[in-house]
Design a protein that fits this description.
The chain has 321 residues and is α/β, with parallel strands linked by helices. Helices cover 34% and strands 17% of the residues.
Length: 321
């Protein structure tokens, strides 16, 4: 797998199809200055990444990309992977490659134009992380709602994002208090709806219960983003996608897209983060950070081509209206 010898003790990494192809692209991006003899591949912030780093060994953490898959099943082929030799994007307690890419982003004409075109294509194509769900034909009810995002219990992005179970309670109460009279839609995570995991927003506050609608069916996320007045999240990727839709985003943790002056943050941002434009964030997160792959053709792809394949799939399957 390239010039460097790579080892992994992660079952998730070992099961990845096209790992050799991914690693060739990753090794090329790491460049010749990265340790050239041996490298460990871990998964996210799990033990397979933590212990090598604790021992001072070179380790590259892999994780699902922000444009994950066409289908929801854990075995669904991944459309992209992110890799990180510093940390991982959802752990704000330490630097990450994504964070460094955002800090170093340039407001050049070419990069901004590509990022803005990709953002516009993402919205027009109505794509999201998971792309299996149908999009209803009817208009969403209610409109101009406050969209509140639940997450799966124990997700590492919650502790890594300096949040806890209490953050979800504060988020829902703030959504009700800060938007009196406005309907609040609580969106449950697809893995919770599929019965694979549990979420946090199971007990609803009595004082605003009449205004809350809990979405108990698996509908496509853009259906709810399009007509949202504001989006409330702890560390979910939905907050990033809401920025792509130019929505007001209120954040109760410290995910990768917070702390750059683009979101309304409940927590102080790490001193490593400074003001950045949305196009800088988009270029770093969707173009520079991930590696995209065309599993069918067995080759590395681009963000734009991958997005177009997702849109084509949803159109063929009758999921895009």
């Amino acid at each position: 797998m390239g010039k460097r010898r790579v080892i992994s003790f992660s079952p998730t990494v070992k099961r990845l199809p096209q790992l050799a192809l991914y690693w060739a692209a990753i090794a090329d991006r790491l460049g010749p200055d990265y340790p050239s003899t041996r490298c460990l591949l871990g998964w996210g912030a799990k033990r397979s990444s933590r212990w090598p780093r604790a021992m001072g060994l070179p380790c590259v953490a892999l994780e699902e990309g922000f444009l994950r898959s066409l289908k929801l099943a854990p075995s669904a082929p991944l459309l992209s992977l992110v890799f990180d030799e510093l940390g991982i994007y959802y752990d704000a307690r330490r630097p990450s490659r994504l964070e460094s890419l955002i800090v170093a982003a340039q407001d050049s004409t070419g990069e901004c134009a590509r990022a803005e075109a990709l953002r516009a294509a993402w919205v027009a194509g109505r794509v999201t992380k998971y792309n299996h769900a149908r999009e209803p034909n009817e208009e969403p009810q209610p409109r101009n709602h406050v969209l509140v995002i639940d997450q799966t219990w124990g997700d590492l992005s919650i502790s890594g994002g300096l949040a806890s179970a209490g953050s979800f309670t504060r988020m829902l109460e703030a959504a009700l208090d800060e938007h009196p009279g406005r309907p609040v839609v609580v969106k449950i995570h697809p893995q919770v709806l599929a019965g694979r995991k549990r979420g946090y927003l199971t007990a609803l506050p009595r004082h605003g219960e009449s205004r809350i609608r809990v979405v108990g069916e698996d509908l496509h996320l853009p259906f709810f983003l399009e007509h949202a007045h504001a989006v409330y999240t702890v560390t979910s990727q939905v907050g990033f996608e809401a920025l792509l839709w130019n929505k007001t985003v209120r954040v109760f943790g410290m995910p990768f897209y917070a702390g750059w002056g683009l979101t309304q943050d409940d927590l102080p941002s790490p001193s490593r983060r400074q003001k950045r434009s949305l196009t800088m964030l988009v270029h770093a997160a969707l173009i520079d950070y991930p590696v995209y792959i065309d599993q069918g053709r067995g080759c590395i792809s681009s963000a734009e081509d991958t997005l177009a394949r997702v849109v084509g799939y949803r159109r063929r399957e009758g999921l895009l209206v």
